[in-house]
Fold this sequence. Notes:
The structure holds two protein chains of two kinds.
Chain A: H1 7-20, E1 26-31, H2 34-38, H3 41-54, E2 61-66, E3 78-81, E4 85-87, H4 95-105, E5 114-115, E6 122-123, H5 130-133, H6 138-145, H7 151-156, H8 161-169, H9 172-182, H10 194-203, E7 210-215, H11 224-231, H12 233-247, E8 251-257, H13 261-277, E9 292-298, H14 307-314, E10 338-342, H15 343-355, H16 357-362, E11 371-378, E12 384-389, H17 394-401, E13 411-416, E14 422-425, H18 435-440, E15 449-454, H19 459-473, H20 479-496, H21 504-518, H22 522-526, H23 529-537, H24 539-548, E16 562-564, H25 574-578, E17 584-585, E18 593-594, H26 604-608, E19 614-616
Parallel strand pairs in A: 1-2, 7-8, 7-10, 8-9, 11-15
Antiparallel strand pairs in A: 1-3, 3-4, 5-6, 11-12, 13-14, 13-15, 16-19, 17-18
Chain B: E1 4-9, E2 12-17, H1 22-28, E3 52-57, E4 60-65, E5 75-78, H2 82-98, H3 103-111, H4 131-139, E6 146-148, E7 155-157, H5 172-176, H6 218-221, H7 225-230
Parallel strand pairs in B: 1-5
Antiparallel strand pairs in B: 1-2, 3-4, 3-5, 6-7
Helix pairs in contact in B: 2-3
The structure holds flavin mononucleotide, iron/sulfur cluster (2 copies) and FE2/S2 (inorganic) cluster.
Amino acid sequence: xxxxxxxxELESRRDTLLQEQDSDTLTVTLCGGTGCRASGADPVMDxxxxxxxxxxxxxRVSVQVTGCHGFCEQGPIMVIDPxxxxxxxxxxxxxxxIVEKTIENGEKVDRLLYRDPVSDEMIEKExxxxxxxxxxxxxxxxxxRLTPGNIDDYIANGGYAALGQVLNRMTPEEVIGxxxxxxxxxxxxxxxxxxxxxxxxxxxxxxxKYVICNADEGDPGAYMDRSILEGNPHAVIEGMxxxxxxxxxxxxxxxxxxxxxxxxxxxxxxxxxxxxxGVLGENILGSGFSFDVEIAxxxxxxxxxESTALMASVEGKVGEPRPKDVHTVEAGLWNCPTTLxxxxxxxxxxxxxxxxANWFASKGNESSKGTKIxxxxxxxxxxxxxxxxxxxxxNDIIYKIGGGPHNGARIKAVQTGGPSGGxxxxxxxxxxxxxxALTEAGSMVGSGGMVVLDxxxxxxxVAKYFLNFLQEESCGKCVPCRVGIGxxxxxxxxxxxGNGKPxxxxxxxxxxxxxxxxxxxxxxxxxxxxVVSTLMYFREEYEKHIRDHQCSAGVCRNLxxxxxxxxxxxxxxxxxxxxxxxxxxxxxxQVHTIKQDLCEKCGICKNVCKFDAISVQ
Amino acid sequence: MEKRVNITIDGVHIRAPxxxxxxxxxxEFGICIPHLCHYPGVPxxxxxxxxxxxxxxxxxxxxTTSCTLKxxxxxxxxxxxxxxxxxxxxxxxxxxxxxxxSKAVQDVAVRxxxxxxxxxxxxxxxxxxxxxVRVCNDVWQAKALGFVGRGRDRHVAFPFExxxxxxxxxxxxVDLCPMNRTPCPGPMKxxxxxxxGQCESQLSMxxxxxxxxVWCRLGxxxxxxxxxxxx
Lengths: 617, 231
Ligand SMILES: Cc1cc2nc3c(=O)[nH]c(=O)nc-3n(C[C@H](O)[C@H](O)[C@H](O)COP(=O)(O)O)c2cc1C
Ligand code: SF4
Ligand code: SF4
Ligand code: FES
């Protein structure tokens, strides 16, 4: 690749690349995100290439494999442009038909079209799918358009224009001013204003400064950072170079967990290409500004996402948090001023520089600007990565994008913010999703996890699940976090097993307060959230467990009984045969019963009964 | 001459030597802040959280550990507010329930006002204060001991679970351990633990600072040796 020596050369390179593109050619875009690959995108790709070759269509059709589109649940996803036809759950066996019908003859393959689970209608165009329609896909939209790590593709799409403009025309102070006007807040969990970090880092005198991109992403179920880094690593790099210019850093790290091999390899490729092209390394675009990045691979501990633990880990030490009385923007990596931002924070930077602070600030609400990506999961019809303007209501996300309840059961809560987030009840669903509103309500935006829970979920059990995760992931250094979470977990276990005591809730509250006030790092400080928020909104569930030994959701095994409804039982004997514990008795064609002392509450009987005669009480 | 900074601890003006911790300064000036993982001369990590104080930053009191907090010009510290007393008691409760057989822990818990614990005792052999690990690694540079595992699995171990050749046999780890420093003559059996606290203070407190003791108000919330003896 030829080195680009000036901003002008970059622009003429972009013009050349754009001229080479022909918007009339048929383009087949295949999502190559981790989700679609797991559901079989690779064989589809191979089959497609082969078919096109056999039919001599390689030159007429351009094939692109991109990063994650966010609709992983329906993967592998294929979009055929310019018609914008979306096919979902495509297998290699579908490929010949797609080539023959759609590519050669412009017809649709109906069975591969998306069927909207809400209206049960078939939808032809990607743009008409409700899941996408209600989103504002600023960042994920790029994923859909780009070949990951390919710098020409990125440049053709407007890449590194922001960098060029910054280096050519802006002082570092002006860059920080723009970020400040945009009111960009950190996407990694805290929502801390990025400009304030950058400013302090810039103002702290030091010969060496660093910028770091936090791609540790240890929350179970979260994959927004992974998807961006996999799908659009150049944008992250561009954001970091601009940030480095603003704060005066010469060196940067991208801290990626090693369980993200695709993200690592795409980022490595992008770094290499960016260096060769002269947008990274010595004398960037001839501006005299030099900056380089290195990829640091994290060992995959959740706590290593915490800023001080992450920096210790980059330094090659044990990834444990240290007290933050001196902030890392003043004394971070190797005791030098360090600006750490999340992947999604960095990737917003080129957009802000290109389109202006006002454009960014026009999205969102008073408290939080721009868009935010959420990983929507749980009991809704559509799950996946969704990007919405900040301030969109929970209702819109859950019902408009998520399509409402998955299997008819009533939705009762949403858990937001990852493991140390909180649960909000249905009557809070009109809340705008912004940093402040969710925190005020007892939860948080966090890194963007969003799990929808329906009436078959026990809230005590949910709190226990997250606490268990946090206990395992706590570094174990300090007493309140290590011992305190363990004690809370003991109490929750007692409650879910029917051994709860009335005073337990007071002890839980004392523990929660102590842990959040006295823990060393934010993992401990926020760890009681799942308990505090469920106690705040679902206290009666706790009380029911303790007082009546009842779990209304039928989840806590010690508190439920499986019973056979004599009116429905036909005596088919399916449950008797299936029960691995010999707890079902009854003669053929007679009503069966369950011996409670033998029942292990595995639920197998209920699953095999064809007459819906077995219930949990 | 050593540079000093002006700070106040519980309203007392102190000219503290620069680069020292708030805990060291407080002890130096006779203000006793309870602590367990801190040991004089060994780098602090803030593990036990007993030494918490309120540090007033821009008008807001923030709870933080004094052993890891370096003095800064103009700092305002409160060691003994109601909130701190309650939090410290709660932390001490957690600690004594983990390790009732440590005289040091029993002692500190009773002084922090713990009379009973609201959970089952665990009777562990180590409170993970890290004194041994730090004296071995940071003071003697022997690196023969370390923490292994995280969360519930965290424990102190030799590298590869075997005492290494490079152990200097200084026994500092044993000497500093709050679990066996003056072992309890009547250790509690599993299932029979209680909050005892009958033993004398095991912690370096005002006993070393006869001349400078100001009979701080802390003694009211935290039964310091001198206050107890004086009564
Ligand atoms: C236990 C713990 C885990 C964290 N994990 C992550 C993470 O995986 N990714 C991330 O960006 N921030 C994570 N954070 C937040 C970081 O400490 C830090 O605030 C963030 O990376 C700053 O970037 P931002 O201002 O752009 O959000 C974590 C914090 C804690 C306490
Ligand atoms: S709060 Fe938890 S994760 Fe953080 S330092 Fe303490 S033990 Fe480690
Ligand atoms: S062995 Fe003793 S000194 Fe070492 S961490 Fe455990 S309690 Fe502390
Ligand atoms: S003495 Fe400060 S945390 Fe233990």
